[in-house]
Amino acid sequence: MPDDFIRYLRIGIWSFGNASWLFGISDRTLAAFADGYLSAIDIAQLFTAAFFFVSWLFLMPSHKR
Question: How many domains does the chain have?
């Protein structure tokens, strides 16, 4: 029973993180294109956020029992 709770908690935290990263990337993308051109800082922020999002995806909890 406690193992199931921990497993679902991990999956829930990971899913919430996915939504948060997608929101953050979309926010940075809209902010980058709001002024009409991309600066080097905007590109660096987008690549950094994308890198951390992909890294977060690799941290997916296993579904093994």
Answer: 1
23, part of any domain: yes
- Tokens for 41? 């800082």
CA 33, CA 65: separation in Å to the nearest integer?
A: 45
**Residue 63 lies inside a defined structural domain of this protein:** no
Rounded CA separation 56/22 (Å): 11
- C-alpha 52/C-alpha 58 separation (Å) is 10
For residue 7, being part of any structural domain is answered with yes
The secondary structure of residue 1, as a DSSP letter, is: -
Entry pTM: 0.81
As to burial, measured by CB atoms within 10 angstroms (0-12 exposed, 13-18 middle, 19+ buried), residue 56 is middle
> For the residues 24-41, what does the mean pLDDT come to?
92
